[in-house]
Amino acid sequence: xxxxxxxxxxxxxxxxxxxxxxxxxxxxxxxxxxxxxxxxxxxxxxxxxxxxxxxxxxxxxxxxxxxxxxxxxxxxxxxxxxxxxxxxxxxxxxxxxxxxxxxxxxxxxxxxxxxxxxxxxxxxxxxxxxxxxxxxxxxxxxxxxxxxxxxxxxxxxxxxxxxxxxxxxxxxxxxxxxxxxxxxxxxxxxxxxxxxxxxxxxxxxxxxxxxxxxxxxxxxxxxxxxxxxxxxxxxxxxxxxxxxxxxxxxxxxxxxxxxxxxxxxxxxxxxxxxxxxxxxxxxxxxxxxxxxxxxxxxxxxxxxxxxxxxxxxxxxxxxxxxxxxxxxxxxxxxxxxxxxxxxxxxxxxxxxxxxxxxxxxxxxxxxxxxxxxxxxxxxxxxxxxxxxxxxxxxxxxxxxxxxxxxxxxxxxxxxxxxxxxxxxxxxxxxxxxxxxxxxxxxxxxxxxxxxxxxxxxxxxxxxxxxxxxxxxxxxxxxxxxxxxxxxxxxxxxxxxxxxxxxxx
Length: 504
Fold this sequence. Notes:
The protein has 16 helices and 21 strands. By secondary structure, it is α/β, with parallel strands linked by helices. Strands 13, 16, 17, 18, 19, 20 and 21 form a 7-stranded mixed β-sheet that branches. A 6-stranded mixed β-sheet has the order 6-7-8-3-9-10, with helices on both faces. The protein is globular, with a radius of gyration of 23 Å. The termini are far apart.
């Protein structure tokens, strides 16, 4: 880069206030052409708000923005895209009822036909190793597949500044490697990146500059290549996350079981479940690894009771056949569930945190049907305090929380119910290193109290850290169980391709 070349982006004293909270306070940040720049901070530090300001989705209260050396006021995302700014959101902005191609089409030049857009998606998907069918309706996609759509949509705009908010949170290590090849190529071509991730090793591998936010303010600027995970963690949260204490235990009786669970897919893009057998005992954490879209969603629907098509004997809870009963009877029998989709399934966006308690908790409902709102508030406040959720009190709407803080609240709500069996999908998706350590510690504490915990995650490191036994899911089939101490990352990678017969 020539020394006289203007900065790609310059923010000066950006401030954004919301009722009860200052999201950004006098934030200044600069990004050079062809620079991968990380924005680091714990959940609720103001990272996503700042990115939305750059993308024109949120208007700042104070401060100035320069783009390619020119003062700009970015009033909306359309204007941002016209300038060459594109963004991959943490919370997906996709229309469920439209296809992948139709969703992508909405953000592109209207002169393109739908067929042209579909063809471009297929080319980009193949080029970048982000496998996706342009004709699929979005409501049939897993969270990992939705992430791929968002990334492809951004790349198709040929951006000069690409903002990525937790882009790898639900991608497999192999998919991340492929994405990094793409991102490094973009950088070499002069595209600038603003990269938000809680995966510190990713930041150190990809980025050459880093701005650290804490409580909405810039607290440091560094070159992450010269830092360690520990030093970045200290800059971000003021300390290193506590080490997990995973002690071997002898598990108790089987509390939850799938027996020869087979299920035809409900739509043409789903995955058939084929002869699933799994057991979860009292006082153990069982992990299920696998690439997104291999039947994990269908399995969790069947295990949680959202899908009641299985034969009664296909799912057993506390020795009772429950394959045919819905979520509420299973909940009354002690089974709780954390879905992978936070907004819309784990929480109602417009409802307060206290009213969101009612989705899975009934203690505040009297026998006559009256709701004890004070009890709801007390319950929600307890979770806010215990899980260090940054929220403007129990009355804050769910959609006002950052993704990581909402995740902490949802996980906390289910753990606080003291379940006998807990099913958790992607427990630490989008949460910072401190919060991830806390959630994993709480899951282990639940296990130590005798709960049977089943965790579905695409984070292999996470599964190796907290699981006692592991399964792998591929093409709607489940591998044999393996003790965590006997498993290796390489072996799990093989099994993700369905290659476990030789080990059976």
